[in-house]
Amino acid sequence: LSKNHRKPKDRPKPPISLQPRNQQSQSPLFGPQFPAELRVIIYESVLGHPTRLMHVVPFDDYSKPIDVLYTANRFSLKGSRGILEMRSVTPTPQWHIIRHLQVSTMFVPPMTTWPYVRELTAWSPGRRPPPDPYKDWAEACQALRDLRGLESLRVEIIFRNDYNSRGPLMADHELVTVLEPLNHVKAPLFEVEMNVCVPETVHEMLGKSAFTTVVKQRPYDDSIGNMDWA
């Protein structure tokens, strides 16, 4: 490199202070003269975003800002396993205040072929991802029913024939098994997107629907079973 195009030297990093940190109560942000409403707006701006992926680890006294993580962000989960695992690690008060959620999953008929969760634990990257186990879906939907502060819920479902099956895509009772538990979940904005049309016979069995349905085909890579959720 010429003298005029030398690689800039990295700036030395400031030394890490080993001195005790000040208490949050000493910060003007937490002072009695600082409006609480403005403090909440700051929390939402820093800790919440509708599309940006974040991994935030709160520290010290975070009883108030931690709630913003659940009220100001949209969570995206994969199937019943994702729902149940998140529920198992989320404190109940915070679970109740989640406002926006998206769930994507896949079911494969017949129900007798994929009923258990063991197919999930046997999967590894590079192989076809396993379908959602029917027997866990009702429990996962029960966890969704407990989202008391839910404002918007979007569920994306792909129904796909068994890899060796040439039968009908989904029987009526299989569609009811998947959709009926969702009918008990409440959200002002609740949409279920599927790649099949729901027959009138299934609508009659479900009764009044708690969600709107959208039929949309999505690309599927049969070589490894990848679904395009974009």
From TrEMBL:
Transmembrane spans: none
PANTHER family: 2EXR DOMAIN-CONTAINING PROTEIN, 2EXR DOMAIN-CONTAINING PROTEIN-RELATED
Biased composition range(s): Basic residues: 1-10
Superkingdom of source: Eukaryota
Region (Disordered): 1-29
Designated name of the protein: DUF7730 domain-containing protein
Domain DUF7730: 62-194
Pfam families for the chain: DUF7730
Composition bias, Polar residues: 19-28
InterPro entries reported in the protein's UniProt record: DUF7730
The organism of origin for this protein: Lentithecium fluviatile CBS 122367
